[in-house]
Design a protein that fits this description.
- The chain is of the alpha/beta class and 452 residues long.
- The protein has 3 domains: 40-116, Orthogonal Bundle (Arc Repressor Mutant, subunit A); 125-353, P-loop containing nucleotide triphosphate hydrolases (Rossmann fold), CATH 3.40.50; 359-434.
- It is 39% helix and 17% strand.
- A 5-stranded mixed beta sheet has the order 5-8-9-13-12.
- A hairpin with a 2-residue loop joins strand 1 (19-22) and strand 2.
- The longest helix has 16 residues, at 400-415.
Length: 452
Amino acid sequence: MEAPATTEAPARDPHLPPLQKVGELISPKAPANIAGARLDETALTDLAIRLAFTANRFTADWVAKRLHLSLPLVEEILEHLGRDGLIEETMASSANRALYRITERGRLQGARSMEVCTYIGPAPVSLEAYSAMLRWQFANTPEVKRQNVTSALANLVLPDQAKELAGLAVSSGRSLFVYGPSGNGKTSLGRAIHAALVGDYWIPYCLIVRDSIIRLFDEQVHKRIEIPPEKAAGIDQRWVRIRRPLVVVGGELTLDFLDLIYSPSLRYYESPPHLKANGGVFLVDDFGRERISPDQLLNRFIVPMEHQVDYFTLATGQKIQVPLRHVLIICTNLNPEKVTDPAFLRRMGYRLSLDAPNPEQYAEIFRAYAKRYDIVPSGELLDNLLARYRENKRELRACEPRDLIERARDICRFRGMPLELTPEVMSTAWVGYFGRNTTPQPANGAASEATA
């Protein structure tokens, strides 16, 4: 995380990991011993013995790399395992490093540990440390300015009021309910507004609650920020620096999907999508078409929205609380009165209706998309295209300029010719997209073989 202009004193929260500042980068400081890791000793020794269980011989360097721990800390862990008779030193490696191997007693201990949890990877941090780090980052995240929103939405043709409402939601951290006919940019807006978020976050690879491991970092969701070597020294490698995330869910969403996901075979947990979105944007697309009722989904979000915390249940029945703060965006093309109730709408930060574009906006969208291919469509082509909509009594959709141009690309590629938005090509694109071949009279009243 980049240092803001002013920062709250970290010492105010006893659970906050020690922080260090290298240049403008503020990062968690690597613990040098077991006490500094702020975990029960058994959490680290159990993880180390499971790792040793998978290898014939190993060095402290290898363990440190696999568990993302400092070498002094790993040497202390191995010393504990050696004293308990779980590992033994065999010989020195070519690099004059001690080689270790697991003992028979260690194998029995490793097998028992695998029965509880099979997780092997970066060492966890405590739930308390993660929660404290989140609170500190929430308090010190740079504000979203108007220029951030303007830049993020620059490629979208939207009414000024729509841009302002979206900007208000993301700058305040409040939720946004977007509704209107399909194909008019609701999902595009939700995805684009993510770019307005500034700053970045530290998150742990995984958490531990007693004996339970919860994986948090997801390569498919989180975009890692590489740390320059000159800044990486002394950073607690259990934490990874990421761009503020964007997580999108749709029709696959169920209530179970919004709780910790336990794997009986692996015996550890995967974080739900809205927890992975912490600090970023959580976009619920096609709201009302999920496999659960809208009421169930809305009720599930009421507590997190109002109190900025969420509660999760472990397989043991234990409840845990985690700070939760993201920009929740809900998009639907259904009637809001049918998929929501007044109580829920009152809890939404902002509401935004995205209606069909007018002819001028449609033409602007068409020109903007055509510009990507270095094409400037003629006014006559656009007039004829809009006339075709009127002839077919078809409502304009913001997505259709893109769709028609992409089909024109398909046609030209299939014919072995460069992309050209000619009347004949656009007519074929229209028929292929809409399935109708009504041909209006050109705007000047003259007959035409085919129009756009």
